[in-house]
User: Which sequence fits this backbone?
């Protein structure tokens, strides 16, 4: 066989194998026998062995991955991956619909209800129809590049289907989008959920148990652990699957992208993606409630675990109008089904001391299986909760997973008391440092009700918690700075607060238990890298009460530096959207403490970044707040991700399509139909210099 003949045959075989993979893994409707499929696959593999030059990343044979990775590199999403707000009752669903209707007065609202798959959110980027990057959600803006691992999933197309596959859809599924089915854009991001099937999870655990390995607690943990493997050949052996539920970013589509979610799902299906197996189209609250109830009855029949229903506006135009809060879309919500409950014995109670000094009682339980995992510990919240529920050691208690995440004791089975139970005596001093404790009344979920706190800021438990939080992925992201290392650093007196991390030497940490030379150097490298993190990460890492990642981003948009934030008054802070009086007072109180002022000076001396950006944020915020931007073409110096990040940081929104609601189009070289449409609609058009000028970072012209 000549090379030309091999090349032709290879193309034929690759296309056939991809088609059969799609039929089997996506449509669940195999068109040939396993033996015939194996014959085609072996012929393809043999051909590549004889002609290695034919092997490409798109080949179906390359699903087992290459050489193991040493680490996952960060990758920025072209548009943010936001989380959803949750609701747990029909009344809250009605309130949500009323809230959206007030945002969109007079607009008829249509909704799509989908199963909420209990898996790991991922983002896939395609260029010219070829899979380029697959990443985790991460912090919503930046995730881990797990492309090699995701390529092992046969339900993820390496190359999108470009032919019209409308015949593969049921008539009712085919949207009225002439010529769009099978049409591939230049750049496309799709979002979905990676999961283990119920059967696959059971099989995986049985295999692990057989060889003496620890079993996974639940399918979601197994999926997460699989995607974190550095060796993709291991991932290839895991029974992972994927469902795609939406778009992130689209550019270069030949024709208008669909503006309704049901049409988008059908378009994605035509391109070769597995989409939700059942959805509901609703036009009223009553229909929504009925759909949620029907899904609850059906979800046990799905191949994957579900923990709720996702409710989304169908119209993309109305989504644009409704907008977002600092962390979630206003046009969507997740309805979580009632948590499963179980009864077990409370063997004992221990006290945990957190980074804020809160003393939390923890129930030590006779292990019990609940909602997919074995539970041996559960929170008892606080001393007042113990007293109010009269929870005693030896009681038979009812536990549930609050939101199916955190196990909690919700009550005592009084009919099963024997009289041998004992009342737990809450400690009078901190169990970690023996320091004084004081009662405080809180107003947040973290500090709800009456909480006892250790008043010693140098308490080892608090220091450990602050170090671990500072090093976490959501904060300044120091590799290796987890619970184990934080405990050792505090135990050996090497750190008293986070600023001490920047004085550590190789010799001082290489002596610690289980800290080899490579781990020590990687940790110090991570500490050094953390000096240049974005300002919002530093703010979040400081662990100020009520200041989560979303609020930290709002603050970084509103102040040029940490110094400006430190000087801000209560009135200035409360003027910021979504920063209320409680958060503002917490910030003013924290920055007003001399101890914290000294910490900031030590961080400054260590060389950490205190600047949010090189622009006037107040002018930029006036220009960007509430504005919608569309990026098109290739910019001279800025990458698309960098431009999108600037827009988001300044409070603007990035859209993938031009409409009458678009405020600016940022156009580079080879800008196509989007630029033309913007010109027709009279939308303001910026080149890169004009965009940077709008940001407050330089000159330029506005066209």
Assistant:
């Amino acid at each position: 066989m000549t090379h030309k003949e091999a090349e032709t045959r290879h193309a034929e075989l690759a296309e056939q194998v991809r088609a059969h993979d799609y039929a089997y893994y996506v449509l669940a409707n195999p068109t040939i026998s396993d033996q015939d499929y194996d014959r085609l696959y072996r012929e393809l593999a043999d051909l590549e062995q004889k002609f290695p030059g034919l092997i490409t990343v798109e080949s179906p044979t390359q699903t087992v991955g290459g050489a193991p990775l040493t680490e996952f590199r960060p990758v920025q999403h072209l548009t943010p991956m936001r989380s959803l707000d949750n609701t747990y009752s029909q009344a809250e669903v009605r309130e949500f619909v009323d809230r959206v209707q007030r945002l969109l007065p007079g607009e008829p609202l249509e909704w799509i209800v989908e199963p909420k798959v209990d898996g790991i959110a991922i983002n896939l980027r395609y260029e010219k129809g070829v899979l380029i990057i697959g990443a985790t959600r991460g912090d919503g803006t930046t995730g881990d590049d797990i492309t090699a691992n995701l390529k092992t999933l046969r339900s993820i197309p390496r190359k999108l289907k470009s032919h019209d596959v409308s015949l593969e859809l049921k008539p009712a599924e085919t949207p009225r989008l002439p010529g769009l089915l099978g049409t591939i854009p230049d750049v496309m991001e799709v979002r979905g959920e990676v999961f283990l099937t119920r059967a696959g999870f059971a099989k995986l655990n049985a295999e692990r148990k057989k060889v003496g390995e620890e079993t996974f607690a639940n399918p979601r943990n197994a999926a997460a652990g699989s995607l974190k493997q550095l060796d993709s050949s291991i991932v290839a052996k895991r029974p992972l699957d994927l469902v795609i539920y939406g778009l992130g970013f689209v550019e270069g589509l030949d024709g208008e992208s669909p503006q309704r979610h049901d049409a988008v799902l059908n378009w994605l299906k035509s391109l070769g993606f597995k989409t939700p197996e059942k959805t509901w189209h609703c036009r009223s609250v009553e229909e929504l409630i009925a759909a949620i109830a029907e899904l609850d009855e059906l979800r046990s029949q799905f191949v994957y675990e579900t923990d709720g229903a996702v409710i989304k506006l169908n119209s993309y135009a109305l989504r644009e109008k409704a907008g977002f809060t600092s962390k979630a879309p206003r046009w969507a919500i997740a309805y979580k089904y009632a948590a499963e409950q179980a009864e077990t014995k409370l063997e004992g109670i221990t006290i945990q001391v957190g980074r804020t000094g809160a003393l939390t009682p923890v129930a030590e339980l006779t292990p019990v299986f609940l909602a997919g995992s074995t539970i041996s510990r559960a929170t008892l919240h606080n001393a007042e909760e113990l007293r109010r529920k009269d929870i005693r050691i030896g009681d038979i208690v009812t536990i549930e997973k609050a939101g199916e995440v955190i196990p909690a004791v919700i009550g005592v089975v009084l009919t099963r008391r024997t009289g041998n139970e004992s009342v737990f005596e809450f400690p009078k001093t901190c169990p970690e440092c023996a320091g004084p404790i004081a009662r405080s009344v809180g107003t947040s979920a973290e500090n709800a009700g009456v909480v006892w706190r250790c008043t010693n800021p140098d308490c080892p438990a608090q220091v450990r918690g602050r170090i671990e939080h500072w090093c976490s992925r959501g904060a300044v992201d120091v590799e290796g700075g987890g619970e184990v290392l934080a405990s050792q650093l505090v135990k050996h007196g090497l750190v008293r607060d986070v600023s001490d991390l920047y004085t550590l030497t190789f010799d001082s940490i290489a002596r610690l238990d289980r800290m080899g030379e490579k781990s020590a150097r990687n940790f110090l490298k991570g500490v050094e890298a953390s000096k240049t993190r974005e300002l919002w990460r530093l703010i979040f890492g400081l662990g100020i009460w009520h200041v989560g990642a979303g609020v930290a981003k709002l603050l970084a948009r509103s102040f040029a530096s940490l110094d400006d934030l430190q000087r801000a008054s209560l009135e200035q802070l409360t003027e910021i959207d979504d920063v209320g009086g409680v958060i503002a007072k917490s910030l003013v109180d924290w920055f007003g403490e001399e101890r914290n002022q000294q910490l900031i000076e030590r961080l400054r001396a260590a060389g950490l970044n205190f600047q949010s950006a090189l622009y006037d944020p107040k002018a930029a915020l006036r220009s960007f707040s509430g504005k919608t931007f569309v990026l098109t073409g290739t910019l001279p110096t800025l990458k698309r991700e960098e431009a999108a990040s600037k827009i988001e940081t300044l409070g603007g929104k990035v859209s993938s399509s031009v409409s009458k609601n678009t405020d600016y189009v940022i156009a580079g070289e080879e800008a196509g139909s989007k630029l033309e449409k913007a010109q027709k609609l009279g939308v303001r058009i910026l080149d890169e210099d004009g965009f940077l000028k709008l940001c407050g970072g330089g000159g330029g012209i506005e066209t």
